Structures are given as C-alpha cells and as structure tokens.
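User: Can you write out an input/output pair for a complex, sequences first and structure second?

Assistant: Here is one pair. Inputs:
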Amino acid sequence: MKVMVAVKRVVDFNVKVRCKADGSGVELANVKMAMNPFDEIAVEEAVRLKEAGIASEVVAVSLGAKPCEETLRTALAMGADRAILVESDSELQPLAVAKLLMAVVEREAPQLVLLGKQAIDDDANQTGQMLAALLGWPQGTFASRVELSEGQLKVTREIDGGLETLALALPAIVTADLRLNEPRYVKLPSIMAAKKKPLAVITPQDLGVDVAPRLKQLKVAEPAPRRAGGQVGSVAELVSKLKNEAKVF
Amino acid sequence: MSERLGITEDDRAIADAVARFAQNELAPQAHIVDRDEIRTTRYASQLAELGVMGMNLPERWGGIGASPAALILSIAEIAKACGSTASMIGAHYLATDSILIGGDDMIRDRYLPDAASGAKLGAFALTEPGAGSNPAGMITRAEREGEHYRLRGVKQFISNADDAGFIVVYAKTDPNAGTRGISAFVVDRHTPGITVSAPEKLMGIRGAPAHEVTFDCLVPVANRLGEEGAGFYTAMKVLDNSRLDVAATSLGLSEAALAAAVAWAKERKVGGEPLANKQGIQWMLADMKLRLEAAWLITLQAAAKRGAGEKFSDYSAMAKLCASEAAGFITDTALQVHGGYGFTRELPLERLVRDARILRIYEGASEIQRTVIARAMVA
Ligand SMILES: Cc1cc2nc3c(=O)[nH]c(=O)nc-3n(C[C@H](O)[C@H](O)[C@H](O)COP(=O)(O)OP(=O)(O)OC[C@H]3O[C@@H](n4cnc5c(N)ncnc54)[C@H](O)[C@@H]3O)c2cc1C
C-alpha cells in the first residue's frame, strides 16, 4: 500500500522562542528550523511499515515556503521514497493545509495518510481531523501503536482513561503521538543519497485550492513570567504555607 | 538560519544529524567519561554506523563524499558534546588519511572500508620520546628482510593504540637520508612484537587514551604506504588535514563554553541584578564571541581552500593556531564568568578548560604552527 506522510517545518524544539516586539507573531529571523517532532515520528512509522514490507511506497508532503524542501530532504534521508512540496509563501492555516492535503491525496491515492498529532509551533491539533472529515475517511488520532491485520488498521490511542484500540477500514488517517516510536538517527550516507531522490514542487493554484486564512490572529504575547519559588525547611512549614499563603485548603 | 561563509545546505544537514547523535548519546556521558577515564573508542561502532568514522573518505572506500566544511562542522558538534570523542575520531582520521594519501588502491581497499564501517579503528604513530616537534629526528628503524621489514623502535603518546585494528607507523628506512629516509607502514595491531603500555595519565581528554608503543616486529613489504622515503611527505599532507580537525575540535569546545557563559551571565544575580548587566562581564562575552567567530572564519577559509584543491598548509596552520588559542581563552574566560561554581567539578567548565589545553600542543604545538605559517612566506 502507498503511504503519505505530511511534514511541517517549525522552529527547532531546542530554540527558546521569542515574540516579535510588535506582537505580530514569533521571531523567525536567524532561528534554527527543523521538522516538527511529531511529524518525524509519523515519517519513522511510515518507513518502518515499508521496511516491514507492508508499505510499498512512502511519499512525504510539505506545505509552505521554499525552505520546506530541507524538511522534505530530512524525510527522504529517513527513508521516504519521494517528496512533494506545495509551495506557498502565504500563511497556511490548518483548514487550508487540510484542503491542500486532500487535493494531494486525490492525486496520489494513498491507502494511509500519517501526520503528527500537532505541530509544536501553533499546537493547533486540527489538520489530521479536518483532512479525515474532508475526505470522509476514518481517523485514528494520538496513535501510540499502529498495526495492520487482515486489511484493517488497528490503532491504539492514548486517552485520559488509558489506552483505546480502534479498528479502521482503509484508506484512513492516523496522527502520531509521542510514544508511537523513537525516530532513528539519520545516517550520513542517507543524507547524501536523499539528494538524488525525486522532489516535486507544485502550487496551491495547481491544486485549485483557495488558501486564504479564515481566522485572524490578533496578537502574540509572551506568557507572564513565573514567580520564583522558595524552599521550605520541613513538612510542617510546607503545610502551613499551603494553608496560610497559598490557601489551598 | 543565517549561515557562516561557505556552508551549504548539505553541510548543515550533515552537521545537524551528527549534532543530534552527539547531544543525545555523547553529551550526557561526557562528565563520566572524563571522571572515570572511560575510553571513547567504545563509541566507534555507533559512530561508524552513523557514517562518522569514514567521513574523511571518498564513497569508494565507504565514506560519504562530504565537503571539508561538513567535516569541520561535524567534528565541532562532537567536540561540543565530548572533547575526548572528537580527539579519538581525529586520531582515526590521521591513520586513514595516511593510507588514503600515502597508499595505492590495493592497500586502500584492504584497510579503508573496514575503517569506515567501524570494524577496525586506526592509530597514527609519528611521535617518539626524542622526536615530537621535530618528527624528522625519529630513530625508529624499518630494515628490509626479504619480503618483510623488521620494525624496531618506540613511539610515544599514540592515541587509540590499544583498541586499534591497525597502526600507521612512520620509521626510517634510510637513516642517512634525512626526511627522505622516512617511510610509512600499516601494521596490524596484533602483530607479534608490538607492546602497548598502559594509557598515560592525562590532564584532559581523559577518555582518549594515549600510549607508549614499542615495536619489534615484522611488517610485510605490501604494507608499506607508497615508495620508500615518501613517508615524511605523506605525514605532512596528513597533518594539513588533521590540523583542521583540531581547529574544529577547538571551535566545538569554545561553542560549548561560550553558550554556558552566556546562560550563566543571564541567570546569575549579583547585587540584585544579572551578571549579564555588568559591562565587565559583557566585555568578556564580546571578546569570546569575537575570537570564536574569527576562528570560525579562518577555519572555513582553510576548508574552502582544501575543497578547491589548493595548497592550504599555511591556512590549516593558521586555523589550528587561531582556533586552539581561542579555545584556551574562551574556556578559561567562560570559567571566570562562572566564578567559584566554574571551578567545581559539578559544572563542565573545568573539564572544557582541561580538554582544550591539548589543542595547543598536539599535531604541532602553537610554536610549530607559527613556523609553518612563516615558512610559507619566507621560504
Ligand atoms: C594526549 C596526546 C595525544 C597524542 N596523540 C598522538 C598520536 O596519536 N600520534 C602521534 O604521533 N603523536 C601524538 N601526540 C604527540 C604530540 O603530537 C606531541 O606531543 C607534540 O607534537 C609535541 O611534541 P613533544 O611533546 O615532544 O614536545 P617538544 O617537541 O619537546 O616541544 C616542547 C615545547 O617546545 C616547543 N618547541 C619545539 N620546537 C620548537 C622550535 N623549533 N621553536 C620554538 N619552540 C619549539 C614546542 O612548541 C613545545 O611547546 C599526542 C600527544 C598527547 C599529549
């Protein structure tokens, strides 16, 4: 079966993000970018399906400006077979991304689309769900385990009460949670080999999708700084402080 | 992210992959490696799997065809996490570069793929008790005995020697011919007649063991690298490359020290305000940054010359001198910013200071680099 994976270019998780002074967004100038960690888990899962002989081809898709090609090259180095960039300099909100992905799905006809559960920049946690709704496909979100048995996809999800296992008919959408797998170290020869793998560039116009934002972002602000903590000398002092200062009980 | 001069997207992709491994696997162990003198040769197979042990080699022998800049960035990333590991890799490259530069395809085919795959670690034996800065003064002898050479002598401070699969040994085939009497040989580590001493007790890079090695053994003629008498020329070419590795290690240690100093200065409050507000501290940070960036530039300039196939001995000497002296200044100043805490073994500053100290000594001490730089102008 053909597997498609969506990957987003985000600020590297090691970077301490800062808001722009005018509150219009997050500072991106001279900031290190990387693949969204949850998408990396999704790529790893797709590559493992291929290595297990279940997936026949892994296609990585990214949406955004030209530098997203670097993110796609990472996916190729991890083991994806080819890549597609839907190139756009506009702001792409989850709904626009879902619509673009739907158009790519219609062209590529994958049996399974893997995405990260959310991107660590806007934490929207919407794209996979919206894509499933637009396509009318079953969805397994927050997957911590994915298994294919007898043409059905068994997806284990982490929910508040514990683990829930769903059986999905294919084609389906799955979004990856943290514990689905541990992505591999990309080997240096694979990075060199990835340069030779095909990477196609198309535009939202090619796909006939209107990507105009539907939501307006009013302001981005730093969270209030946390007050420094203090050390207590004894349990009794802790209880007294909880009671009298924090007024917890 | 804006990049330094001459670094391509591919170079960055390679360095990022190495950085990830280094930060996850090497950095958390670095203080234990230092404290307990754990040999970083134990990382060789993991590093080989990643592609690092053959990074200096062409694809034909299991390398990846990386640019000199990618090599520098990668070694810097490893040094940022663990100076001992960077040093261990540097010694391996000294050995494999010797074979690549001095040998023919037959011997390259015999040793280099195993070196790249991690099956065999390399060591490089040039220095002797009586010949460090002046390797031409070596007295180790290789005398022809039929289809073999009889190798006799003592080599000093040989990194990786005990755990190596092979040692590249430089010896005199003609004691009357000066530098033209020196030849290079690849010697299997477990050849009868090789004695490796217990590792030296070192001030820094304590996870990169260096040994005295005594040779009284037979080496097949087929294990000679190139012609008789070509060894000194090979060694000098190898050192041109390896001095860039030392520069890269210097840059990595400096990056780690400066990042720690900046973070500390912003966090630590003295007299009610962060250290970073004090002009005296700001000037320290500024001087550290300036020397770091200058060292990066000259190192990348040397790498660009190497990549273009130009002669770069003087540039690699300048890069090594500039970067290793900067590393001494930067690690020491970063410790100063940390005050008493920097002097404790709870923080990595004192280790960075100790690890950086060797960089001004091995592969040609600072004085020797100056000689190389001057010779390019006046000779
Ligand atoms: C941890 C460690 C690992 C090493 N690994 C290896 C290895 O793997 N393989 C290998 O072959 N060697 C290795 N070495 C050896 C290293 O390269 C030498 O120690 C170095 O070249 C200096 O030689 P020396 O120690 O004999 O010092 P000396 O040559 O005795 O020099 C002493 C001092 O005098 C200065 N000096 C010497 N000549 C001049 C001059 N003409 N003008 C001005 N000043 C001068 C030097 O710069 C130095 O400061 C290693 C050393 C150490 C400590």
